[in-house]
Amino acid sequence: MKVPHITSGIISICLGGLFYYLTLDFPKLNTADTGAAFLPRIYCGLLILFGIILLIQGIRDHSKNEESSQTVRYALIAMVIVLAYILVIPYIGFYVSTALTIFSLLFFSKVRKAVTLVSVPLGAVLFVFLVFEKLLKVSIPMGSLFL
């Protein structure tokens, strides 16, 4: 039995259920079209399904839990990087913070090739710019420092 898998599965199921419950207040359309809650409910269902799969895997797995302190440390550092990313988006904007976060995660993952460290963040930012901002006309946060 793997306690982290069981715990993650239960948390995923609970979050999926909570988010599904929150979609019940979304406005409904009078036509046969899908409403605002359609896609979030699909995501909630998938989150619940994957949580159930993770829970079952955790219960059925009888191997020893061999989580090293190094693995836990890496996971915590990656979570801190992502949390910092979320916190700095309003100030330095989406594009700069995304490029810095991807660079940081690659560097933290021991990627040392300069071409990769530069091209992957720039490619991701360029992709988001072209697809979402230019093609789909989605407004991307620019940050208060650049306004």
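The record above closes out task 2.4. Task 2.5 opens with a second protein, given below.
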Amino acid sequence: MSRPLETLLALGALLALAGATQAGERPRYGYGTPPTQAQVDAWNIDVRGHDGLGLPAGKGGVDQGSEVFAEKCAACHGTFGEGVDRWPKLAGGEGTLKADRPEPTVGSYWPFAATLYDYIDRAMPFPNPRSLAPDEIYALTAYILNLNNLVPADFVADKDSLPKVRMPNHGSFTWTDPRPDTRVAPCMTGCRDPKAVVITSTAEGKTLTPRTTGPLDDMQPK
């Protein structure tokens, strides 16, 4: 095949691709396949904390959870969630978050009970994550909440009851972004004059960042 002919064929292919794109058609490259619904479902496992959106069907109680916990969790987290060696504590820590050595457990720190289901489903047990059935995860969630005295012994966790559990530290979280630069709506036309934009709030003097003024500013190296 001559070079001019090769060039014309390549140009024709490019023009056809450009025409298809302009017409709204998606170009096809000849590889990959659309995901099946089962493949999508396997990745779509997230659970939203505040309302439990994404929690699956199923249920589990405290007694069942204690059995699953003893078999698959206690080796690391202790029989009653007290932690083994340096593995995390799951229970206790009430009133310690402002202490010199805070204990951020499920009961003392976490804002949402539904997040406990989400985390267990994604990451536990540590040697074999994603191996637990929904009923087992619900049961473990109920048991851990009971260890923290947040639900009674007859509590049954499911997609309806779990989001209703009020966590003690829920009110200590900030749900709005405090940064002033996020409070202005983005624009493409009719935007404010940059010279008119002024900083009205900073983190200086608070616990977010160190102060930029102080007695050390005037120190000079010897």
